[in-house]
What does this fold into?
Amino acid sequence: AALTVRFLTRRFIGEYGDMEFIYSHNLTVDGREILFHIWDVPYSQADEGSSEEKRIQWADSFVLVYSICDRASFNILPLKIQVIKAAKEGMSQEKVPIVIVGNKRDLHHQRAVSSEEGRLLALSLDCGFYEVSAAE
It folds into this structure.
């Protein structure tokens, strides 16, 4: 998951908007070549009912990114994770890999969500947790 997060955060910051993208990326891990397909969906499009269901069924794992400077982006995470787990784990009984990522770590002076809150949320929802700075 950390490798995926690192790949995702290489994207040019000014590129974010209301568009969604699918990226493909080859990576060699332990001598095996792995092809990642990453469907990047901005939050403004994440509530579209059947489209959201389609995305959830398409994905094998999830990286949910919030801004540490925006409490609203953090507060929506439990509901999103509940929807993902209900859709994925209800069918297969297997734990779905979910990582919560706090972005904008470089803007610590504008921080609205503490690192501890992010870690505790991830722990309570059985998810991974990272804080990153796409700008760095």
